[in-house]
Specification:
This protein is mainly alpha-helical and 141 residues long. Helices cover 74% and strands 0% of the residues.
Length: 141
């Protein structure tokens, strides 16, 4: 293999690593945005009403909960950010829409950014939405 081919291969590998790292950092930023949005909502809502939805999401969060999101394996995980946004959407839908109009708009922007991350994100969101509804129906409070 010639020097030019080795150099090209190394350059392409480095570019790929940067793009993958950028994807994980974007997921982390979106998770942080969702956490800040949830913390804005918490003083105005009763989280105990959403115990089943929180329990569903917590099944996919490692070593902690969605309410206390820690560890890079969670904050940079596409599935966790999808579930985080799904939980927030469920909360906002079940609260007074007028009270949280701004938060709803922010969340829609976050969801749009999540869907733009890759082709799988929207499918993941839809699948978990159906599973979460089924979980909440089968676990009445």
């Amino acid at each position: 293999m010639s020097y030019a081919n080795k150099h090209l291969a190394r350059t392409l590998e480095q570019q790929h690593k940067r793009s993958v790292r950028g994807l994980f950092l974007k997921i982390q930023d979106l998770n942080n945005d969702c956490t800040l949005l949830r913390k804005r909502l918490e003083p105005h809502i009763d989280l105990t009403v959403y115990t089943n939805a929180i329990d569903y999401v917590n099944q996919f969060v490692s070593h902690t909960t969605i309410l206390n999101l820690k560890f890079i394996t969670n904050t940079q995980n596409l599935e966790v950010v999808v579930l985080h946004s799904l939980l927030l959407a469920h909360i906002i839908e079940n609260e007074d829409a007028y009270s949280f109009k701004h938060e709803h708009t922010l969340l829609q922007g976050y969801i749009h950014e999540i869907f733009a991350l890759n082709d799988y994100a929207k499918t993941l969101y839809t699948n978990h939405q159906e599973k979460m509804l089924h979980y909440m129906e089968s676990h009445p409070t």
